[in-house]
Write a structure and sequence with these properties.
Layout (H helix, E strand, L loop, with lengths): L1 E17 L2 E15 L2 E7 L9 H8 L11 H7 L5 H19 L3 H4 L10 E4 L4 H10 L7 E5 L7 H9 L6 E4 L6 H7 L8 E2 L9 H7 L4 E3 L6 H7 L5 E4 L1 H4 L2 H13 L3 E4 L6 H8 L7 E2 L16 E3 L2 E3 L17
């Protein structure tokens, strides 16, 4: 198998803000694995929070040897260098895409899964309360069934943010504080919020996690606390659910293991994403049916998605019925 990787810049339709900062574009790495006349594609969305970047992903990929059997996944992944989960996820996605094209099957069928997952939420990124309410009104009628509010403004206005959004919509709300609150703040703020669940209110590893889990008025989901399968059991002690992202877990195979382990521990399962093109989102849609909640709007945040093929319909991000991941790169018209 031959591997090719390239850096790509994805431009957002609007500036995206969370408690840790803002971005207008995201750098990803897209990989192509070719074998016997077919090519599989995958995307790495490196997470700066974990000291990963497009540069580090490209450097890691230079040391990857894939062998000659795209179906020998155990052997391939046992031989990969350590680290760089986003780049590992790109390899994983490209191999699944290649397998699907060689067999003529979409990836979700290769995995024996249903195509339909829960509706995706749409993210209302962090801003002042009135701004978040205005942006909520702007997405009315676009078909979203749930909204995820980014909180953690370090200004005492998080309750007002949720109240402002609630005043303009009846859709179910959840929030993500991105590690912004202390235990005391979380215990004070969360009971005042009209939300279904709260994602990562405390810093990863905060010793107050178990206390918040016991005392919270709504379920607590953890994101930054949960990366791969080995983290799931500990998360059961500090949360009611986990947020799986392929860029954290290292790909579809590990994400499936995490989902089954979480369910065995009676944890809720959420499937999230980074800012990604349709190529990255397509990989996640293949396993959405394993999850209770889905937050796969990364490609919908872009000014233009260079990898169309994921269908957004009735609030759901649907995997394609085409072989593999079912997306194709859209080459710009040179005219």
């Amino acid at each position: 198998m031959q591997l090719h990787a390239q850096r790509t810049t994805l431009r957002l339709a609007e500036t995206f803000t969370i408690s840790r900062g803002s971005e207008d574009e995201a750098e990803v790495v897209q990989v192509e694995i070719s074998h016997e006349g077919a090519s599989g594609f995958g995307e790495a969305a490196p997470i700066a929070r974990y000291d990963e970047s497009a540069d580090s992903a490209l450097a890691w990929l230079e040391h990857v040897e894939l062998g000659d059997d795209p179906f020998a996944l155990d052997e391939i992944f046992d031989s990969l260098p350590p680290g760089e989960q986003a780049a590992r996820a790109a390899i994983d996605a490209a191999l699944h895409d290649l397998q699907g094209k060689l067999t003529g099957l979409p990836v979700y069928r290769l995995l024996g899964l249903r195509p339909q997952g829960p509706p995706t939420s749409w993210t209302i990124w962090l801003g002042d309360p009135d701004d978040m309410a205005r942006r909520t009104e702007k997405v009315a009628g676009r078909g979203f069934k749930r909204l995820k509010l980014k909180l953690g403004g370090f200004d005492g206005l998080d309750v007002e943010r949720v109240n402002a959004v609630r005043a303009v919509t009846d859709l179910p709300l959840m929030c993500d504080a991105n590690e912004a609150w202390t235990l005391d703040e979380a215990l004070e703020i969360i009971p005042q919020l009209d939300i279904e669940y709260c994602e990562q209110p405390l810093k990863a590893g905060d010793p107050g996690g178990a206390t918040l889990r016991e005392r919270s008025a709504v379920p607590i989901y953890v994101d930054e606390d949960c990366h791969a399968l080995g983290d799931v059991a500990a998360c059961a002690e500090r949360a009611h659910g986990i947020n799986i992202k392929l860029a954290k877990s290292g790909g579809i195979r590990e994400a499936v293991r995490m989902a089954h382990a979480a369910r065995a521990l009676d944890l809720g399962v959420m499937l999230g994403c980074m800012v990604e093109s349709g190529l990255g989102i397509a990989a996640a849609t293949q396993i959405a049916s394993l999850c209770h909640h889905v937050d796969l709007d990364g490609n919908l945040l872009l000014a233009e998605d260079p990898w169309p093929g994921v269908e957004f319909d009735d609030g759901i991000q649907w995997p394609s019925d085409q072989p593999g991941l079912g997306v194709r790169e859209e080459v710009p018209d040179p005219r």
